[in-house]
Amino acid sequence: MSGYGTDRESEELTFAAPPPVRGGAFARTWWGRAWLKALDDSALDAQQVKAGRRHARAGAVGAVSVRPGRITAVVRDPDGSAYRGDVLVRVLTDEEWDRLLDLAVDSAGHIAALLDHEMPPHLVEDAAGVGVELLPGVGDLEPECACEAWDHCPHTAALCHQMARILDEDPFALLLLRGRGQRAVVDALQARSAARAGGSGAGAGRDAGTGGAPAGVSAAEAYALRDILPPLPDVPVPEAVPGEPPSLDTETDPEPGVEPAALEFLAADTAARAHRLLTELLAGRPAPPGVAAAGLSVAEDAVRLAAGRPPGWVAGRLAARTGRSRAGLELATRAWRWGGAPALAVLEESWAPDEAALARAAARLAEAWEDGEGPELSRSGARWTVAGAEAELRLGEDGRWWPYRHEGGVWTPVGPADRDPAAALTTATGEGEGEGERDE
Hints:
Largest sheet: 5 strands, antiparallel
Radius of gyration: 28 Å
Low-confidence stretches: 1-9, 200-214, 434-440
Shape: globular
Structural class: alpha+beta
């Protein structure tokens, strides 16, 4: 099975038309950027690609249909005229799919990444090594448009830009475009895993050195038997609120240096964090930054405690013991609520980006705005200040951008970090207000 399309696979996905977007690169993942590079390398006229990017940014692309070998959408011009655009991609042959699936099933990491909607780079590299090209290359994106352009036009270029956003969120859309949808791929991977487990031999789980005594069950066998083994018990439902810690107000005088009220506060904080961690875990979500206290320094843990809005006497003591004023502690807790220890480090520490970090930052800034549309920025270390505005971007050591605003004579954190400097700057200038401070 090859060529541009197939009658054998009827699966189709439709992605709703998105609203217009302001600023930011069209792809944030490496595979999304690879898709757009294939467009840039395939189109003969770069101006048509730029016009398509403007169309996509303005929300001119309708719902996108993705099916084996083809993506389709209606794209509107600024004058209101509409054209159906299609982009065709070669479908993999059955033999190529066999090679690809064999590679994937050889690595549990490949499968886990796909199921987590990530495109593992090693899978793409290994597939290319056996002659299977997952991502498109030069000339692989073949355009068809009702405007009768013979090369990529603004309509097919806009469709490709919108597809890059779709691939960012769901790399299985690329596999469907190559011929097989998510269900077919997962079923094939499960069948291969079960077949390999079944062929491991009846004695695979026994240790010859112990006279045939069971030595355990391999993970592959356990996975193959998942539909036979009894189901796991239901996940327990946590209480709505954390429990009350015991009162330490007793008739016995405390030991010198021990303050019952402070211990009660710490016990209540520990109970609240444990409840929050358990609730997030059972809901299948990662713990928010700053909830877990493991690995924090004394100064960081003091800010974490203060971010929980303790009584005034506790906040005052935390400020004094960490050498901060009450205003300084309030500023630190504000940063903490936006992003935990990394946000606090960006507020209170300075670092000098090396040449490689500066090059990556400059590339991010260049991608974030159209030519000539970006703000004028002056840099000092890892801080970029907007000329003529009370706004600043601070670059963290992990490459994320933190929005700051000059308020009351102090640079103040006003939002969480973002990989996209344009999005962070929108928050810093106040255009994205209304979300409120993150509640930790």
